[in-house]
Amino acid sequence: MAKVRLEHRHVILGEPLQFDLVDERGRTWLKYGYVIQSEGQLDRLIDRGVFFEEMIDESQRQQREKENVSVFLGIGELAGEFQQLFDHGRFSYGEVLRVAELIQELCELDGDAALANIQLYRSGRYSLRHSFHTALLAEMLLRHLDRPREVRCHALAGALTMNIGMLELQDLLYQQNVPLTLEQKRDVIAHPQMAVESLRRQGVDHPVWIEVVEHHHEMIDGSGYPKRPPMNVLSVESQAVSMADRFCAMVSERKHRSGTLSSMAAQNLLGRQAATIAPVLANAFKKEVGSYPPGTMVALANGEVAMVIRRLLNPEQPLVRSLRSPSGIRYAAPPKRVAGGPVFAIKEAVDAQVIKDCDWASLWPRVELEESKDGEAGAA
Fold it and tell me: Taking burial as the number of CB atoms within 10 A of a residue's CB, which of 75, 105, 321, 377 is the most buried?
């Protein structure tokens, strides 16, 4: 018999329980056959950390592990695999497309857990991690705009390879705490064309892939670099990658500073940089990311510190799990809150490092592969 912590997937509202529910001391809370009628009652039981005992043999356990996926961990593992493609210099562009397809699959399973990695995953080379996160956010924006799956896949491949002309320089700039030299500025301006030439030498000629790489620093207002083409030349795919590129760069740390808080990065993009972003993309960003995307640490009005875990219909009132009480005590079982109203409203975003040694993956439960792709109402 296995002691299993209760999750939403274990209960069907309105139907009798198939087990006793007990607390960590073994005291019975609800008996076999009891009917849980409301989502609120189920949430409270889960927040309290109740358990049930389940008969399961090892073969069943292994099968169940195969059927359930931690999207948060899966995204991190895929980011590591993507970085390994560059360990030996020359890499396979077919493998880049495979990574792009897997990003799409994981985002479909749980877009919230996937988005959280942008702010919480900090392993490996900055240059490659940044390209990976840009591809992840671009997928969410383009999926919101109902772009065809195959087109999105090649746009993601473009995001993953957009900086292959300056990977070493990008890693150097991550460490650098002084202004760019004139030579570095020239290399930065030249890197889109260098990347396109490298791709073409390897036989990559898909128009979406090439266009994204070539134009990922161009802007609809005529700014950007290197060629400043007319607005009608820039595809929605290259514009989405450009927007994702800028957001991911802002929220990422550097060797000598923390990243910009997501609320400030969103304000910068949609305010100061509004002229460089098409309204349709700005709207997609507000719906898919908002000021407090999953992975954002926030301070609540009641003094709790919480992690945003789900986007809801109102992007300014996401679902959070409170990690630290107003008195500063860490919660053993982080309770859920809808971040709204006078008590649980978000006061401000804060650096994730205010909470040390947290198992971030535990905040996003494993997803059953047969579940609906999009999940929560506000997720897509």
Answer: 75
What are 22-46's pLDDT values in tens digits? 888 788 888 887 888 887 788 888 8
Closest CA to 180 of 161, 163, 166, 164: 166
Q: pLDDT of 245-272, one tens digit each?
A: 999 999 999 988 999 999 999 999 999 9
User: How many residues make up the chain in this entry?
Assistant: 380
What separation in angstroms does the CA of 274 have from each of 7, 236, 247, 282, 349?
42, 16, 13, 8, 22
Q: What fold is seen in the domain 70-288?
A: Hypothetical protein af1432 (1.10.3210)
Residue 103 and residue 347: Cα distance in Å, rounded?
32
* Domain residue ranges in the chain: 2-55, 70-288, 297-368
Q: How far apart are CA 247 and CA 4, in angstroms?
A: 39
Identify any residues that bridge with 224 across adjacent strands, giving them in sequence order.
218
Distances in whole angstroms, Cα of residue 202 to Cα of each of 119, 214, 277: 33, 16, 32
